[in-house]
Amino acid sequence: MSKIIHFPLISDQFSHQFGIKSLAPEQKILERTGEFKNQLALKKALLSQDPQYYSCSTPESVLAENEASRMLTGNPDKLIETSKKIQEDLVILSGEASPGHPIIAGTVCFPNGWTISEKIGQGIDKVHGPVPEYAEVMSEAVNRMLKRLRTGQTFWRCNWAVKPSSRLDQSPKSMPLITEEEAELTSDNVSDRCFFRIEKQTLTRLPQTQNILFTILTDQVSVAELEKWQQSNLLGVLRSCPESTLKYKGISSFCALLCDDLEKRIK
Q1: For the chain, which has fewer Cβ within 10 Å, the N-terminal or C-terminal residue?
Q2: Domains in the chain: how many in total?
Q3: Among 84, 59, 245, which residue's Cα sits nearest to residue 162?
């Protein structure tokens, strides 16, 4: 049975908290899961098929890409080449607060409903514009944190989702296939075919360029493979989650079906 590398639902109640913390000295920015080889093979295939869809750079990102690559692998390189060597997706934000820390480069093969090609050049608030209550609850704290991020300092958090497909690439081009998989969910298979998916996200201020490196490690297991206490917390979070957030996360259409099955499993 597979285990999720991080499980961010520490209670059975939904919360809009950003949940960010400092990376401990003994922790590393890069991690590997048991899917390391499979994910690298898939990233290389996607980047070979459609590099401009999954990777973008700008003239102002050249030095930052080299700096980030040197920090992560020991060798300066383009972000797209570095991404082929590690499990994480990579994004670089401008270190400038006044324009809103726009994205200046990124290689993202395993996104949740977006593409780097549509987000390049956007500031952090615009990137998160579709997130329910982001502007009211999280925007001020996120911008303050980015502005105060010190050179060499790393913060990290975990984002979570439940998906009706094991496809790692959940960008818009994959949506027709994912919709077909969702239509096949039943009360008998919902926990086997729905996947609890996390993103371990890190933010690091690069010393030389002062830009910000954003890494995204994706891991997932079927809901059926979660431990019973994890299934219990997930059930509570889903039941207390606002409908707007369930819709944003793409869960609302199968939420009742999944909750009914989770309730049976934790008894």
Answers
A1: C
A2: 1
A3: 245
Domain membership flag for residue 7 = no
- CA distance linking residue 145 with residue 203, whole number of Å: 10
Close Cβ partners of 52 (under 8 Å, ≥ 6 residues apart): 117
Residue type, 206: L
Answer yes or no: are the C-beta atoms of 187 and 257 closer than 8 Å.
yes
Rounded to whole angstroms, the Cα distance separating 87 from 84 reads 8
* Helix H or strand E encompassing 121: none
Cα gap 213→146, rounded to integer Å: 11
In a domain, 217, yes or no: yes
Q: What backbone torsions phi and psi does residue 179 show, to the nearest 5 degrees?
A: -60, -40
Place of tokens 């002062």: 210
Tokens, residue 93: 């934000």
